[in-house]
Amino acid sequence: MIEDALKEAGFTNAQAKTYLSLIRLGGATIGSIIRDSGLHNSVVYNSLQGLIEKGFVSYSKTGKIKFFSAADPAVILEEFKSREEKLKSAVEELSKKRNESGKKHNVEIYEGLNGLKSAFNSILSQSSKGDYIVFGLSDSDTGLGDKFLKGWDEKRIKKRIKKRVILVRRSSGWKDYYRNRPYTDTRVIDTDPASGFNMTVNVHGKRTMLILWSKYPISIIFDSADISENFRNYFELLWKKSRKA
User: Is the pTM of this model over 0.90?
Assistant: First the structure.
């Protein structure tokens, strides 16, 4: 778990193992690190050099022997925050240039699970008035995992975006999850409109996301007020026919 978190922060696999060895050992020689990490000599040398350049490892010398030490883990967090601020600034500048170009596409297509995650984040990234509506959920395994979906929903709640969800009859798992969520109103429709048509519709503002579920899911985002209005009208018809979850 910790090793994975370090890799998420930009460490290579070998650097993560080397850094964790130093945490366990305290001040340590090359030989001690090699034995503890199980890595090859040259890999440890290269990892230490990379970590020293990043400021995550320091060393001292006693005679001709070098002793390496891991920097305070808080340093990693500060570095990550700094990168995040730089990335945020770059994203804002890129978004500005994209809007100025006048070549914004009205349709975005995302493929696979990583593409689906990007689509979810994209549709929530733009602040919009009005509630977020979803219909067509089922108990079929999305492949995204609870961690991503629930984490994404937490972001939506922090933005205080109200969400209305229409579940089909077989969505007992989602019904239990949404029942006590803030800014969330959930209903169930007895006649399953998604039977034989495995698709979920998400609408937020003028953006509509259609998800075609399969082993290799495809998500399509339409940036169109007309399309979102059409789906909202259809949603409202189903909402009137649905019952409280």
Answer: no
